[in-house]
UniProtKB/TrEMBL annotation:
Protein name: Steroidogenic acute regulatory protein, mitochondrial
Known pathway: Steroid metabolism; cholesterol metabolism
Entry's localization field: Mitochondrion
CDD domains on file: START_STARD1-like
Bilayer-spanning residue ranges: none
Keywords from the UniProt entry: Lipid transport, Lipid-binding, Mitochondrion, Steroidogenesis, Transit peptide, Transport
UniProt GO cellular component terms: mitochondrion
Length: 285
């Protein structure tokens, strides 16, 4: 009955559906495809009606969004794919090897992932609430060069909707200048999942930011930071950072591994100093 009703409504407004663009039309078609699939054999109605309701809610929210160009939709999709892939890597607990462990408990692990290469995983606890880290890492992203000496500059090139941005990052020289200046152009996606916040990204192409003279264009693989309140201590935050980078150029693997592992340790230390010196945005540090 529900399927027939949907088809009747869709048929009566066919011209309206055809006039939709991008995510609006995709959401309508997705609901229709789901109903068709369920009608051909699926779980009891109670099990999938809730799914249709959720998709209906998604449709309603997308209808309120501005229309995106095909390129913007591609960036949104790329950001979400980077998030899913990075979270999939973190979810697999097997095969991680310890790179270093600091006296304060900060730990760096590594693992080789097929088609990705060697990735690094930082696990730390920060004595600040999650919202404070979110402010510093997302809302004040462009100010990171002020407190992290490994970053010279981060600039937001384009903001797409609420969750996606295109950024250009200029990194400082590393390992006693053995690793020269690198820059990155990335698509970044931020999502809230209950009490957890995920910041993900990967390398992308952006015509307005071609390669710079004298700087090697490196690439982020699927990478992400996961922020969540520490269990039993909500005023503290558990931060997990998955780092995957292709530095390009001719560099020995031993140098690359040392640089990336140390970059994560340094980041945690610089972040803590920043948060201690500037407890909240209202302080205007």
């Amino acid at each position: 009955m529900l399927l027939a009703t949907f088809k009747l409504c869709a048929g009566s407004s066919y011209r309206h559906v055809r006039s939709m663009k991008g995510l609006q039309q995709q959401a309508v078609l997705a609901i229709g495809q789901e109903l068709n699939r369920r009608a051909l054999g699926g779980p009891a109605p109670a099990a999938w009606i809730n799914q249709v309701r959720r998709r209906g809610s998604l449709l309603g929210s997308q209808l309120e969004d501005p229309l995106y160009s095909d390129q913007e939709l591609a960036y949104i999709q790329q950001g979400e794919e980077a998030m899913q892939r990075a979270l999939g890597i973190l979810k697999d607990q097997e095969g991680w090897k310890k790179e270093s462990r600091q006296a304060n408990g900060d730990e760096v692990l590594s693992k080789v992932i097929p088609d990705v290469g060697k990735v690094f995983r930082l696990e730390v606890v920060v004595d600040q609430p999650m919202e404070r880290l979110y402010e510093e890492l997302v809302e004040r992203m462009e100010a990171m060069g002020e407190w992290n000496p490994n970053v010279k500059e981060i600039k937001v090139l384009q903001k797409i909707g609420k969750d996606t941005v295109i950024t250009h990052e200029l990194a400082a020289e590393a390992a006693g200048n053995l690793v020269g200046p690198r820059d990155f152009v990335s698509v970044r996606c931020t999502k809230r999942r209950g009490s957890m916040c995920v910041l993900a990204g990967m390398a992308t192409l952006y015509e307005e930011m071609p390669q710079q003279k004298g700087v090697i264009r490196a690439e982020h693989g699927p990478t992400c930071m996961v922020l969540r309140p520490l269990a039993g201590s909500p005023s503290r935050t558990k931060l997990t950072w998955l780092l995957s980078i292709d530095l390009k150029g001719w560099l020995p693997k031993t140098i690359i591994n040392q640089v990336l592992s140390q970059t994560q340790v340094d980041f945690a230390n610089h972040l803590r100093k920043r948060l201690e010196s500037c407890p909240a945005l209202e302080a205007r540090c």
